[in-house]
Amino acid sequence: MKEAVDLHAHTNRSDGTLTPVELVRLAKEKGLAAVAVTDHDTTAGVEEALAEGERTGIRVIPGIEMSTSLDGCDVHLIGLFVDIHNAALQDRLREVLEDRNERNKRSVRRLQEKGFSVSQGDLDAYGADKILTRGNIAEILVKKGYAEDIKDAMGKYMCRGKVGYARRRVPDPSECIRLLHDAGARVFVAHLHQIDLKDPEHSMDICRRILAMGADGLETEYCEFDEVWKIRAKEIAGEYDCLESGGSDFHGSLKKGLELGTGYGDLFVPAAFLERM
Question: Which domains, and CATH codes, for the chain?
């Protein structure tokens, strides 16, 4: 049987619910050959995960998921094999965190203005060391009865054009690529189908343009890809003769029914992807 890896997973250092140690232990239980810790705009959980990987004998890839934007669309880039001690990267991540926190405050104010019973205290309850995302605000909305689950809350309130959405300043793709390359990372376009939900062709165009900027590859295996998106992603990888990656985008209990390694049941990310990097 071929070995599987998961190269896109989150811990409670951003919007996941498992600690880095718990994530690595779960990867071991699942029989994965490797797991990448790719929290949003932070590497805070990587050292802890690496230590647990060393202890338990599972390979841990130091990573990150950085937010950027192109043509007004949100784009996420996965960095794998990141030097988490790179000073320039960490300096920029501190700036990104400050703006993310301001964005979260704006989102809460927008919701309050529309009569939603949410507060800054709801965010503060997560703790000062956690990187909070729109997903966490969606989680608050679910807990308060405004939506059935995270996906429902994101679609109703937290996506672009919805009441709780607030833009934030992010590095442009070329800056993200440069920062990550300078920190020794391989850079991948994440979940390309989410770039422009209304226009698949635009999503693919943006992916191609980011690859042309110097990104090393894209995710060709992802928990939400149907057969059409798998074919599209593979075609782009073939066009650019680039590296492939993939993962479950695991967030613990934040995403119901989503499992590390297997996604919603049929995900398989071959260890060969990792070997080629």
Answer: 5-88+172-275 (3.20.20.140), 94-158 (1.10.150)
